[in-house]
Amino acid sequence: MATITNPHDKFFKESFSRLEVVQSFIQEVFPAGIKDKINLSKLQLTNSSFTDADLSEHLADLVYKSEYAGQEATITLLFEHKSYREDFPQWQLLRYMTNIWQEEQKQKQKSSVIIPIIIHHGNTNWNKITMRRYFENPPDDLLKFLPEFDYLLFSLNDFEDYQIANFKNNFLSTTAMLLKHSRDEKEQFLSLISFWTEKLNLLEEAHEIDFIRSVFTYIDNGINLTTRDLTIIFTKVSNNVTNIAMTIAEEIKINTTIFYVKGLLKKGFDAAFIADTFELPVKYVEEIIQKIKESSN
């Protein structure tokens, strides 16, 4: 199988970079008192990344800006996802928030109120605690010196599958279900095959081929399924989607072969040895080696 670093991050960012996904997410799950005041027509994804060296492994932060209660540029939505339980999430969120405020200051913009949002899709429960608990409940007269703030937490484990299936936006519904079940055993994941085929059919009808490719690639890299398991799902959709699946499967096979050939080349093995190891024609391996050499020049 091909390997993508942080496949959950990559897929989350691809999905939640779509404006309609975030608009739908706000409408579907945000508290009424907040979502009713966010101007969804003014919602915009910023182009800036607010990661720094210490946050570089957390690449999925997404920042949206909008009007709130009729006031321009007063709210920033910071989306972060977690596939594992974080012991001190406020510290990481505070770093993001500080970076955002510093950038606004640099651009001579008014500081925005930031609503941090964590979407959790791990297989453990999320124990949300207040920031003051980090300090083992200090005396009340010291509380004013603490950077106390809250964040919105949405754990996909708290949503029933039928609720996710009924999300109005197909991108959001598919993304949320994939993230929720990303650590399922094969049998459990495939038990949802009617959902996968229904959503893939709808996406194919909408000509969203790039998103279908993202779904296939994410399942291949982020979920414990074989390429054969994947084709079981995708071949139940349409001939077009089946062809897409087969094409990506072949790309994955080729890229994986190139990856291992490159590794053996670095160790000094020749084409004949590599061909014998992978039971491939020597000429095919020689062609791969030539491509590797050309790409490195």
Question: Could you write a compact summary of the structure shown?
Answer:
One of its GO terms (biological process) is DNA recombination. This protein is of the alpha/beta class. Helix content is 51%, strand content 11%.
Q: What value does the Rg take, in angstroms?
A: 23 Å
Record the strand order, biggest sheet.
Answer: 1-2-3-4-5
Shape category: globular
Total discrete domains: 2
Percentage of residues in DSSP E strands? 5-15%
Number of beta-strand segments: 5
Distance between the termini: 26 Å
- Helix share bin: 40-55%
The largest sheet, given as strand count, sense and whether it forms a barrel, is: 5 strands, mixed
Number of helices: 13
Low-confidence regions: 55-59
Overall pLDDT score: 83
SS class: alpha/beta
Name the helix and strand elements from N-terminus to C-terminus, one letter apiece. HHHEEEHEEHHHHHHHHH
Element layout with pairings:
Blueprint: H1 7-16, H2 19-29, H3 32-35, E1 44-45, E2 62-68, E3 71-82, H4 89-106, E4 113-120, E5 152-155, H5 161-165, H6 170-180, H7 186-190, H8 193-205, H9 209-222, H10 227-234, H11 239-266, H12 271-278, H13 282-296
Parallel strand pairs: 3-4, 4-5
Antiparallel strand pairs: 1-2, 2-3
Helix pairs in contact: 1-6, 1-9, 6-8, 9-11, 10-11, 11-13, 12-13
Could you explain how this protein is built, in words?
It comes from Arcicella aurantiaca. Residues 6-205 form the Transposase (putative) YhgA-like domain. This is Putative transposase/invertase (TIGR01784 family). With 297 residues, this protein is α/β, with parallel strands linked by helices. It has 2 domains: 7-183, no CATH class; 252-296. It contains 13 helices and 5 strands. It has helices spanning 7-16, 19-29, 32-35, 89-106, 161-165, 170-180, 186-190, 193-205, 209-222, 227-234, 239-266, 271-278, 282-296, and strands at 44-45, 62-68, 71-82, 113-120, 152-155. It has a 5-stranded mixed β-sheet with strand order 1-2-3-4-5. A hairpin with a 2-residue loop joins strand 2 and strand 3 (71-82). Helix 6 (170-180) runs antiparallel to helix 8 (193-205), helix 11 crosses helix 13 (282-296) and helix 12 packs across helix 13 (282-296). It is globular, with a radius of gyration of 23 Å. It starts with 6 loop residues before the first helix and ends with a helix.
